[in-house]
Amino acid sequence: MIQSFKQNYKLQVSYDAIIIGSGLGSLTTAALLSKEGKKVLVLEKHYTVGGFTHVFKRKGYEWDVGIHYIGEVQRPNSVIKRLFDYITNDKLEWADLGEVYDKIIIGDREYDFVKGVDNFKKKLVEYFPEESEAIEQYVSLVFESTKTAQKFYAEKAMPNLVSKILGSFWRNPFYKFSDKTTYEVLSSLTSNKELIMVLSGQYGDYGLTPKKSSFAMHAAVARHYFSGGSFPVGGSSKIAEYIDPIIENAGGTVLISADVKRVIIENNAATGVKMADGKIFNADLIISGAGYFTTFEKLVSPEIVENLGIKKQFQKVERSVSHACLYIGLDGNPDELKLPKTNYWVYPEGKDHDEIVENYIKDINAPFPVVYISFPSAKDPDWSNRYPSKSTIDIITLMPFDIFAEWEGTRWMKRGEKYDTIKENISQRLLEVLYKHQPQLRGKVAYYELSTPLTTQHFVNYEKGEIYGLDHSPSRFRQRFLQPRTPIKNFYLTGQDIVTAGVAAALFSGVLTASAITGKNIINKIMKKAFQKN
Ligand SMILES: Cc1cc2nc3c(=O)[nH]c(=O)nc-3n(C[C@H](O)[C@H](O)[C@H](O)COP(=O)(O)OP(=O)(O)OC[C@H]3O[C@@H](n4cnc5c(N)ncnc54)[C@H](O)[C@@H]3O)c2cc1C
Asked: What domains lie within the chain, and their CATH numbers?
């Protein structure tokens, strides 16, 4: 059972491994190490477990924060499906979103992204008959890029010596794709501006516009969803719920409301952590899944960060953008309200995504550059068992941190009238976008609540409310320090920053970290086991 640190539960002071944060990277690492017989303590600052995969409840509704759809789990033999099976002891189930996983809307024009790569291509050619060659080439490049990604990421878990000898052969083919921006690649295939906007219509999944984002990131997301999207049955919280017993069976514990203040480092080796209340836990291994900046700006002493040259790395990576999310509760079940399972990506008219975002950053009263509408209650077949006659919707948009910076340091839910007024204005604007595309919902909204970048800062400890950790620019992928090992002995990283944003990427980060620690090829082991079972 997940326990609260504040309950002063009878704890041991020493573990094989301590993991800071309970995002999916951390939980995956914890599950894998537990299955290797290690006693693991997971320490989560928030009052609930899961990082961005947590859910929260209010006024009789429940919302998922950072899972709207996941690809590749529809295929029973996919690595992602096998990994999820392994870390949840086959308990986690997935519900398919159906034929259309994303709908890209630009002005009044709609483009469906349909499941299955051939269907995807065919549909796009129906929309853009003159562009069939460009579409074919685009899909090929997406596959080529993602193929090179496998070795690029695997190299991160290689022992240092092997990496010195073989590393560049495993990394270099990937750089051919990661060094280019999404726009560079797309505009080399077509001059059709609308097609470029449509193909990059999922840029919100990694938070960076086509002229700034790496094509490798774009390709990873596009490819991930070619086989459709799925949602965890019972909601995102099921992931942590199914992993927790695995940690406990190996003698470990997951603690919430457990705020780590410092990693204890002696003679350049991590030996434990100090909690906000002064309590100390010791372990042979310390792993941080709290994000690169949070780890080295807050959890490791500034002198060590300076002396090891880590501070110089700070200039080489940037924080991703921040967001606002309108969490909506409605009267009526998803069928009655005719809620789709498809995600809507709503864009205004404009030259391209980059220019639209730039205009909005200058004036946030300009049309929202992207409005992502997700209908989680319609995606989850178990929803109506838990919440009959209710439904939920999440609407996400880009929201510069600066808009809310003056309220930094104020208390959650008590930030004052001006703050609430800005929030209300944004909420109403987002609701109008919803009603434009789902007019039947006018009058059905029973509750809404807007999260701001300060909410993300407060609950998930990302200093500038970053939605996806580090930015996914071409130069990010050149940074060799974004890997499980750190210059500090027995101190490791996990989570989205060592791979990329995304639930599947966080899952892989856990595999990389556990592989680097144990020296085992964990993916091979899991895949072999899965085939033996069948
Ligand atoms: C709004 C939103 C929607 C998303 N939608 C999708 C989607 O549909 N599909 C998809 O694949 N991905 C999606 N993502 C991305 C995905 O959720 C994340 O990339 C992934 O979950 C990040 O996992 P992580 O392991 O890096 O840890 P995180 O989830 O970032 O968790 C880090 C944890 O560390 C904890 N922590 C920080 N400091 C401390 C401390 N000092 N002491 C203790 N604990 C600490 C934090 O509280 C947090 O719980 C979405 C993200 C967001 C924000």
From this structure: 3-53+234-317+482-533 (3.50.50.60), 115-228 (no CATH), 319-460 (no CATH)
